[in-house]
Structure formats: structure tokens, C-alpha cells
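Why DUF480 domain-containing protein? Reviewers of the renewal asked for a concrete example.
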Amino acid sequence: MEEGAEVLDPFEIRVLAVLAEKEALTPDNYPMSLNALVNGCNQLSSRDPVMALSEDTVAEVLQRLMQRKYVNGITQAGARVTKYEHRMRIKWSLEQDKLAVLTILMLRGLQTAGEIRTRSGRLHEFKSVGDVELALQFLIDKYPPLVSRLALAPGTKEPRYGQLLGGEDALAREETAASLGGSVSGGGQGTRIGALEQEVQQLRKQVEDLTAQFAEFRKQFE
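Here is what the prediction returned.
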């Protein structure tokens, strides 16, 4: 996003995306309660990365989003529970097809137009990949842009797209993580990268231990 544009953190992006998703999938339960929103954020399916947010964390995120006019809190007469709704459609002047594309990118990370079409499901039914590409181009052309088209990855024929709500640096990190995750199967990219980082730390410690042992060994001959 351009300098000066608002940047959202990963938790804020997840909360907004879940609100937009559930608005389309379960309209009878929308606006959403805090409890339903926590469950949606931590859902194991259709999420990359999978998260485990506490109720307190989601409540704090909602407060920040309401202050910045991304979310409305609604307390109906006689109701003790506040319900929440997103304002992305109003904030960025988005029709449902554009909102659906952005929501899928927010929930599931980098994807091709074909993957977005397959996964958009009940959020919006796209008749063709071309229709998805038109919606993507609209999001790319906004000022500041909401989506970016990435360079073709080695060995691929279709470009991937990513949302820019977390800023260009966050998108670049996601692109790097995805390329490292590559063809590793199973789990979300975030999970795979976490496992790789842990493995690197373990290997580094083993090298340090071996180096120390070798130094001790050399001393015997000095």
C-alpha cells in the first residue's frame, strides 16, 4: 500500500475477513457475537495460516477496528451481547464480487485467479476465471491498491495474487514463506514455516555443540 495508507496487522485482517465471510455464508447469524467471531477466526478449514486467538485478543482487535471505522458494534434493545459487522464494503466502495475476492485472499493467503474462483463458493459465484481477474484488477487499480499481482514463481504458469492490507513488507514475507513452503504437503504455510524455523534452530544448536566439542578435543593435542 502507498506510504501513509493504513496498515492492518494479521489479527485485524483475520477478524475482518471472518466477518465478511460469515455475512455471506451464515446471514442469519450476522452481525456476529464475539464468541462466534472467535470460533470463525480459529476455524481449521479454509484458513492459512490457522490461528488460535483468545477471546480477549479478538475483543481488543475489535476495539481497534471500531476506532478506525472498519467495524460497527451493534447493541440491540434488550440484548446483552454486542454484535459486530464489517464496513469494508462502504470503506472501499466494493461490490460483492470484489469483496469476495479480497476476503478469500485475506483468509487463505496467496492464490491464483483459478484458486480464488474455486474457493469463493457461496461468497460469490464467478462464471469464469476471467471474471475473477476483472475483480482482481479493480482491487489492484484502487488507490491505494488493495491487491498485488506477484511475479511468476519458478515452474508456474499462473500468477498469484495477495492482499496488501498488511502492507507491502508483509506481502513480501508471505511470498518468501510460500516459496520456501513450496511443494511441502499438509498444513498451512504458516505451520510449515514455523516447523522449518524450529528445525533450523535445532540444527544451529547442534552445530554449536559440535563446535564446542571439537574445540575441547583440539585442546588435548595443543
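The radius of gyration is 21 Å. This is the kind of structural detail the renewal will allow us to pursue systematically.
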